Amino acid sequence: MTDHVRIENNGGILTLTLARPDKKNALTDAMYGKLADTIESAEFDPSARVILIRGEGDMFTAGNDVGEFAAVASGKSEGSRNVVRFIQSLARCTRPLVAAVQGRAVGVGTTMLLHCDLVVLADNAQLSTPFVSLALVPEAASSLLMPARIGYARAYEMFALGETVPAKAALEWGLANRVVPLDKLDAEALALAQRLARQPAGALTATKKLMRNGEALVAQMQAEGEQFAQRLRTAEAREAFTAFAERRPPDFTKVA
Description:
CATH superfamily of the domain at 5-182: 2-enoyl-CoA Hydratase, Chain A, domain 1
Distance between the termini: 41 Å
Shape: globular
Structural class: alpha/beta
């Protein structure tokens, strides 16, 4: 399917590595498909007791591949549903999810963390959700989860202004469990995953189900998805992606 997602299963820990560092680990349709397939399959694999998500290179992920967004906005592509499968697989996942995040985590790179049970940030991590800046709306049930996690005022600023949240603030706000030096990131995330893998799997699953209503999150994702698909085909979105390609600030004042 793609070499840009590396899968390893060792000692009960299923590690998913975003491996497209030359493109800042921007997520393509094929990558979403492989991630979704792997997370869905893990539900039926007793050897996969914990799922660890990490990124190769100097950043976690730049989010969705902007070229694919632009193709939809320009009418050259109908888009794909693999991103929908991926975020829904996160919502429905009963396995513990651990994330190790370094550098920038943009868009879905941040919203996917709201579905992870333990999040470890490197001290250089920066989280951002610049959906409105791209003339879009939040996804992955983040319009529900983000205000619940950090409060409406902070969530609105992240969404509406695209403000970047550095690691220290993300920890203080409750978006992460740990902040560690960059060279300790993988070891810390792996140690937490190993601790979870030694816990009774049935009790972990039951606890997660009590704490999270996966189907309610999927319903929110579907509502967001309808708005997202509509917004992606607007004149505002075309201006946003044209400006991105031309490396200039967008001018939304000329868009009716």
